[in-house]
Write a sequence for this structure.
């Protein structure tokens, strides 16, 4: 897999508007979400079903291919901005302070999503960071309000966790997002690793065969 992410032109007006777009665009629902059922963490086989829906199962693909297919399915515009440190040196520091490697911003009103990652990340880390943020879009994580639960996470893959409903069914995943933010982050990491290996293996993936009937 080519781990070089698509670079967008950030010169001129975009840099002037970057700070304004950095404002809070997440969690736009008006009322607090209610707990809505439960499920376990996503498996590699279930992720392959999502790839089949996107037309990527059994194919070698790069993050840009996954982003384009996901954006078309969700009917939103997704852009990835790999920002050189010389253009916006504060980005890496702001992300480090927040404990993140990248930043995803989504606006329902504009029907668009933007992923910001510093260009100083190593290639593999850069790829996984982009796939992680795309995983949040696939899960519909940005269409809920946080509803943190007090109990500690359990780590068994088959453990059942509470989920939250969405105000709009704009997601690829079959299940609803988890109620706990830590679980949403954990599953985004899973999606990133599944996507990396599936994109590298293509038809050699053990989960690719037999997935074309899920549609």
């Amino acid at each position: 897999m080519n781990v070089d992410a698509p670079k967008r032109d950030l010169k001129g007006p975009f840099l002037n508007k970057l700070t304004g777009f950095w404002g809070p665009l997440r969690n736009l629902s008006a009322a607090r979400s209610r707990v809505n059922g439960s499920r376990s963490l996503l498996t590699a086989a279930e992720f392959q079903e999502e790839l089949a829906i996107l037309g990527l199962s059994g194919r070698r693909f790069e993050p840009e291919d996954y982003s384009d297919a996901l954006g078309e399915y969700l009917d939103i515009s997704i852009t990835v901005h790999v920002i050189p440190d010389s253009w916006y040196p504060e980005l890496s520091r702001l992300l480090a302070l927040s404990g993140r490697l990248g930043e995803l911003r989504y606006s329902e009103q504009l029907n668009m999503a933007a992923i910001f990652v510093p260009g100083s990340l190593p290639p593999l880390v850069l790829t996984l960071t982009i796939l992680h943020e795309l995983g949040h879009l696939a899960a519909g994580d940005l269409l809920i309000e946080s509803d943190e639960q007090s109990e500690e996470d359990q780590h068994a893959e088959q453990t059942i966790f509470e989920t939250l409903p969405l105000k709009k069914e704009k997601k690829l995943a079959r299940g609803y997002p988890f109620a706990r933010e830590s679980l949403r982050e954990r599953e985004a990491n899973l999606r990133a690793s599944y996507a990396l290996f599936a994109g590298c293996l293509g038809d050699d993936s053990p989960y690719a065969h037999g997935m074309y009937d899920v549609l």
About this structure: Helices lie at 13-21, 44-54, 63-74, 90-98, 123-139, 181-201. DSSP finds six helices and five strands in the chain.
